[in-house]
């Protein structure tokens, strides 16, 4: 068997932005390495374009298009595989276990498990039908409501409030945010003031420096109940028929505990979201697992790196580094070493790899179908009509769903 035809198993866990990008690039690599098999594992049957949630919430036709089948990532006749299951634990440098009990061998592993995003953007449902039902139920609640309260003034909260207000102009929409300004603090003040002004143009009441006392249940995302009352830390009371949570971020990373035991070190943050520690190359921060990468929201890169398009870029970086390792025969050398001693992985020479560089500081925030704010290269277009034009042209139409459909090009195959 020639070196290029050796068996190589690459497993990607999580098929959202980082995972989808990694899968696409790695599957294409099998043209040069026919023995390469890519396995995608995800707990859902379909990818949901979470970035487009604000539009999906008010547009049933768009919501239907925002779900794409993971099975459509691979040609039906290819050796690549999609497994609809959930990761239970990573056992060691070559094996992982799924909640079904199935064990999978890997030469390279990409953990793209992401995080539980704020509120209903983290659509609950294992299948497309279940996801659509959850969105439809919330939409029906909004349609019958008189008052809607959106909690959280990040991009998700601003976009959701904007689309609800624009689609239901006779509803009373209130956005409450705990900070002094809207949107992430790494962006310019003009972006925040522009967002507030444009929300108010749509009739949204924006309340800043107020923290809503939400139920302790971490799964609480959106609640439909006529006349429900929530209290702010200021003592003010907010009465609404629908409450949409757009704050909070949870990372599930307990599946790396076996690796922490082997490495005899912590591989995750101690408090808050338990982000997984990575090297600049996106490898797990332990020289005992150089073949394990963490891309996307689950890693401990700064929050400024936790956007969909940046997760895609990280997936691309992880895939490029795996390609470099394959070209150098690293998987063969690692398997030979660890067959003798698990700790020998640290002695296997790793080729020079690319480091993740966050060099893009940009954001597009649609506020309903016609308004929006934008920033790129430190230039903000917050209050300007030019921002409305750019955001409409670049994002509002389908929230860039068209860019992702190429990952699922076999979705119509029998």
From TrEMBL:
<protein>
    <recommendedName>
        <fullName>FAD/NAD(P)-binding domain-containing protein</fullName>
    </recommendedName>
</protein>
<keyword id="KW-0274">FAD</keyword>
<dbReference type="GO" id="GO:0050660">
    <property type="term" value="F:flavin adenine dinucleotide binding"/>
</dbReference>
<dbReference type="GO" id="GO:0005737">
    <property type="term" value="C:cytoplasm"/>
</dbReference>
<keyword id="KW-0560">Oxidoreductase</keyword>
<dbReference type="GO" id="GO:0004174">
    <property type="term" value="F:electron-transferring-flavoprotein dehydrogenase activity"/>
</dbReference>
<comment type="similarity">
    <text>Belongs to the FAD-dependent oxidoreductase family.</text>
</comment>
<dbReference type="InterPro" id="IPR036188">
    <property type="entry name" value="FAD/NAD-bd_sf"/>
</dbReference>
<dbReference type="Pfam" id="PF07992">
    <property type="entry name" value="Pyr_redox_2"/>
</dbReference>
<dbReference type="InterPro" id="IPR023753">
    <property type="entry name" value="FAD/NAD-binding_dom"/>
</dbReference>
<feature type="domain" description="FAD/NAD(P)-binding">
    <location>
        <begin position="9"/>
        <end position="306"/>
    </location>
</feature>
<keyword id="KW-0285">Flavoprotein</keyword>
């Amino acid at each position: 068997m020639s070196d290029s035809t050796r068996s190589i198993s690459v497993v990607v866990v999580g098929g959202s932005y980082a995972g989808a990008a990694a899968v696409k690039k790695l599957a294409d690599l099998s043209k040069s390495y026919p023995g390469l098999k890519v396995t995608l594992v995800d707990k859902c049957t379909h990818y949901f374009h979470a970035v487009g949630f604000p539009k999906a919430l008010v547009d049933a036709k768009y919501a239907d298009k925002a779900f794409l089948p993971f099975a459509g990532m691979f040609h039906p006749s290819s050796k690549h595989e999609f497994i609809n299951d959930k990761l239970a634990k990573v056992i060691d440098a070559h094996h992982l276990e799924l909640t079904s009990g199935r064990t999978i061998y890997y030469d390279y592993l990409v953990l793209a498990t992401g995080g539980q995003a704020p509120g209903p953007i983290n659509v609950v449902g294992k299948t497309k039908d279940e996801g659509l039902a959850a969105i439809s139920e919330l939409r029906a609640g909004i349609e019958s409501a008189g008052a809607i309260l959106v909690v959280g003034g990040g991009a998700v909260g601003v976009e959701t409030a904007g689309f609800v207000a624009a689609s239901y102009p006779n509803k009373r929409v209130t956005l409450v945010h705990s900070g002094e300004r809207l949107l992430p603090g790494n962006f310019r003040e003009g972006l925040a003031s522009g967002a507030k002004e444009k929300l108010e143009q749509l009739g949204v009441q924006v309340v800043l420096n107020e923290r809503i006392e939400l139920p302790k249940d971490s799964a609480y995302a959106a609640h439909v109940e006529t006349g429900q009352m929530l209290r702010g830390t200021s003592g003010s009371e907010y009465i609404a028929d629908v409450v949409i949570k757009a704050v909070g971020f949870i990372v599930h990373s307990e599946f790396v505990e076996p690796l922490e035991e082997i490495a005899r070190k912590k591989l995750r943050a101690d408090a808050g979201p338990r982000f997984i520690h990575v090297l600049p190359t996106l490898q797990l921060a332990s020289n005992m697992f150089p073949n394990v990468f963490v891309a996307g929201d689950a890693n401990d890169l700064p929050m400024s790196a936790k956007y969909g398009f940046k997760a895609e870029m990280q997936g691309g970086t992880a895939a490029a580094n795996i390609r470099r390792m394959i070209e150098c025969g690293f998987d063969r050398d690692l398997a030979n070493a660890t067959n003798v001693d698990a700790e020998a992985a640290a002695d296997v020479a790793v080729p020079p790899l690319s480091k993740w560089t966050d060099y893009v500081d940009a954001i597009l925030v649609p506020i309903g179908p016609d308004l929006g704010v934008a920033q790129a290269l430190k230039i903000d277009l917050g209050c300007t009509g030019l921002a409305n034009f750019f955001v409409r042209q670049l994002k509002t139409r389908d929230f860039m769903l068209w860019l992702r459909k190429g990952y699922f090009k076999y979705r119509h195959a029998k």
